[in-house]
What we know:
mainly beta, Jelly Rolls
Amino acid sequence: MAEARKPIVNPKNLDLDHWRQGSFFECRDASFGMLLGLDNLGVSYGEVPPGKSGCPFHNHHVEEELFVILEGEGTYRFGSERYAVGPGDVLAAPAGGPETAHHLINTGTVPLKYLAISTVAATEICEYPDSGKFLAKTRRPGEAKASFRFIGRAPSTADYWDGEPGV
């Protein structure tokens, strides 16, 4: 019999993963959608220190995201615009091209705390306009981790038939 899941999670009780990358990216966060029994909706809680961002500027081709600011102040970089955000603000990140690229930057003096909610697609392509990278990933139903994940840049292309036997 499958383990019964409790339909309630309080972010205060989550075991947060603390990570840093370089001098600008840092976050304490945890994903907990699956703890709630959600297979097609991603939910996470994040805390970003002052002067930092929790992720690179990126856009999704398939998945949509929504952020709810709980505490702190920041800047929501969205496409070519920047918006001041604070407690109670709800931020949309619809699927699309670079015009929907986004990330949060903590411009305040205390940790920026937020909930992130997203659709969970089996296959996704993300672009990173600042660095020219892309991410391709896919996952099998019911699995949290991607079964295929590739990050690269697009200056190299190949014909559909390139390298195939007999061509």
